[in-house]
Amino acid sequence: MRQPELPHRSLRDDPGERLRRMVGRVRARWLLRGCDAGRRVCAWRSVRVVSEGNVRVGDGVQFWSGPLAQEIVCLRGAEVEIGADSMLNAGVSIRAVQKVRIGARCLLGALALVRDEENGRVAEVSIADDVWIGHGAIVCPGVSIGRGSVVGAGSVVRVDVPASSLAVGNPATIRPLRTQNS
Amino acid sequence: MLFSRWKLRRCARVGSSPSVRGRVSIVGPGSVQVGDDVLLDGAWAPIELKTFDPDSQIVLGDRVRIESGTSIEAVASVRIGAGARLGTFSKVMDNHFHSLAGDRHVRPSSDPVEIGEGAAIGDRAVLLAGANVGAGALVRAGAVVGRRLPVPAGAVASGHPSRLEADG
Predict the structure, then answer these.
(1) Which residues in B lie closer than 8 A to residue A150 (C-beta atoms)?
(2) Residue A117, CA distances (Å) to A64, B22, B85, B150 in order
(3) Model confidence over B22-42: pLDDT tens digits?
(4) ipTM of the shown complex
(5) Those residues with Cβ within 8 angstroms of residue A155's Cβ, 6 or more apart along the chain or in another chain
């Protein structure tokens, strides 16, 4: 897939960027050594990984840099899957005691949380392809988010979100995603 | 204090007596201007002031206080008035960076953010593109405020979706 022109990376001038990306790929190989990681995965900074279970990270997944590292915590017997070309901004936290699946080309905004366990209740989380989770949003156990949907910044999603929908609020309410920018 | 000034070395302008604890990350080609007596407390978690274009601007007025974990991203302009306060892990952005429809990687247009003098932004609040918080107003912790809800001077905004609290 062609590398998109990303806002965070437009900060950097080219010669340095190519080197940083190479370093990022090596760093990702090291940080994700306990995982099943695809090609061209890039960790622009640190990522905290606890992979007691089965963690699969697709081709081209990017962990962006920022003040706080991302974390993937996959306990024994659990599964985490992150689809190809998804991008996780700084501070994103994914924790699985059973199963968390994130599709391809998803965008996870800074400090977003995905959890399949809350206060003893365990239910798997499934996020389809092309989903955009806004800054600081929280995806609760048992939630299924359909393809192409958007979760607004700061929202807390506690119910399923159909495809091509917009989920906003705490707790999030759902409406269709209009084709024009709103 | 000299160390504070060194931590702010990437700023275009720094006023008198800045106070910086912990880490402040100033990134990008734009200009960050810091007024007098500003406090940036990154001791718990780093503070991030990020610009994206050469003409991006972040302006912190005199006596502004910013707590740990705060992140300010400006493509056009974010202006914070004198004496305003930003709580821990608050977020201010003047651009949403991704499009709702079509190619998600197309950056939408910017909408500058203004925070008035003496305003207070609570912990983990989010100010989206086009947010406007009046002088002395309060945005409560965890609230998400955007162009849909300008917060008048002295008002209180809370919740998500956010609304103005009635006078009381």
Answers:
(1) 100
(2) 25, 33, 35, 37
(3) 999 999 999 999 999 999 999
(4) 0.93
(5) A134, A137, A138, A167, A168, A169, A170, A172, B144, B160
